[in-house]
Amino acid sequence: MGNRFKFLELIHDAKPNIKQQGGKGKNLVILANNGINVPLGIIVKTNVFREVLHDLNLEQRVLQFLSSNPSPQKAILLANELNSQITVKNIPKKVSSEIIRGISLLKKYLGPEVSFAVRSSALVEDQVQFSFAGQAESYCCLVSNEEIIDAIKKCWGSLFTPQALLYLIKMTKGIKKLPKFEMAVIIQHMIISNQAGVLFTVNVINNNLTQMLINSNWGLCESVTNNSAIPDMIILDKDEFRIQKMVVGNKKTRCIKQPNGSFTTTIKNDPELRNSSSLDKFQLQRLYHLGKKIERIFDSPQDIEWAIKNDTIYVLQSRPITTLNSY
Fold first, then answer.
1. Per-residue pLDDT, 129
2. In this predicted structure, what is the pLDDT of residue 28?
3. Using N-to-C axis directions, what is the helix angle for 93-110 and 145-157, rounded to 10°?
4. Are residue 66 and residue 184 in the same domain, yes or no?
5. DSSP letter (8 states) at residue 130
6. Are strands 8-10 and 41-44 parallel, antiparallel or unpaired?
7. Shortest CA distance to 237 belongs to which of 268, 215, 214, 264?
8. Which of 155, 189, 223 is the last residue of a domain?
9. Residues 68, 139: contact at Cβ < 8 Å?
10. SS3 of 74, please?
11. What is the DSSP string of 166-220?
């Protein structure tokens, strides 16, 4: 797939550029460039954020908020105001047409019945002093162009939730310059997985650098990342593949694609699925080697979201673990 776009980049054709791709997007490009199995997708570059929202004076309004004895009440008011204005913004025809053309190109390779995941990729996510992990949004199993474009605007708005603004109050104390408020958005093939979860290349429960930690459940990754189910927990020896501990979570529910349309839904797991491990030894071994490889690529401990469909492992995203005292 050749890159013929002004406002988009194809993940598998791009070169890493955090200014255009944001933190998550840049990391996906690095993974793809290193042969990691990343779902096909496009990145709506940060220049679209600037093009569409420049007249809202976002940075100036946030700076004014931070310098005016900010409070939770003021954060809620500003967040509601900014998100209302972002949501009703019209994306220019030249931009929306290119986004739709990019989606059509993906469908050409993936098939017309494919659905997509839309994820935010902010510049601030990759700045250690402004680690926004958990502040921004993802939207899964979207089908129509209208749903995808609506999700793009919601991703932009996620930079300005009350939680994000309150987080900025905490993180900007003593800092004269604000982080740059720009966001890319990732549109990726939605992997309708049999199992999914998170792999930490160090044990984040006890900061043990000699262990890896995996959380997993049946279905989509959403049930693990949003803590809606108690997942399986597996601790691996990091020096050589060896299961040190396995705790089968109750996994009462799993997340799946809505059977008749867009978005996701939660269903109950049968007792057989609840009481058995969602991963077998061979799958754990493959995740172990994948985690080691990705950690070498980034030269730092990683928090990796993954999905398995028909025994093929896909990496949905990888980001640095910023909670460790030292490495």
1. 46
2. 98
3. 120
4. yes
5. G
6. antiparallel
7. 214
8. 189
9. no
10. helix
11. HHHHHHTTT-SSPPP--EEEEEEE----SEEEEEESSBTTTTBTTEEEEEEEEB-
157 and 279 share one domain: no
pLDDT for 135 equals 53
Would you state the torsion angle of the CA atoms of residues 105, 106, 109, 110, taken in this order, to the nearest 10 degrees?
A: -150
Q: How far apart are CA 57 and CA 55, in angstroms?
A: 5
Please check whether residue 326 lies inside any domain of the structure.
no
* Separation between Cα atoms, residue 320 and residue 30, nearest integer Å: 13
Q: Quick check: helix, strand or coil at residue 232?
A: strand
Residue 327 lies in a domain: no
Distance CA 185, CA 198 (A): 21
161 lies in the same domain as 263: no
| Co-location of 120 and 221 in the same domain | no
pLDDT in the model for residue 210? 97
- pLDDT score of 63: 85
The pLDDT score that the predictor gives to residue 136 is 62
Concatenate the DSSP letters of all residues of 6-72 into one string: SSEEETTT----HHHHHHHHHHHHHHHHTT-----EEEE-HHHHHHHHGGG-HHHHHHHHHTS---H
Closest of 158, 152, 50, 157 to residue 102, by C-alpha: 152
Last residue in a domain, options 149, 171, 189: 189
Q: Judge whether 29 and 21 are in contact, CB under 8 Å.
A: yes
Amino acid of residue 58: L
- Domain range enclosing 109: 8-189
130 and 58 in one domain?
yes
Instruction: Extract the runs of DSSP E, i.e. beta strands, from 219-272.
Output: 232-237, 243-247, 253-257, 264-268
Low-confidence ranges of the chain (pLDDT < 70): 1-3, 124-136, 172-179, 325-327
220 shares a domain with 312: yes
pTM, full prediction: 0.92
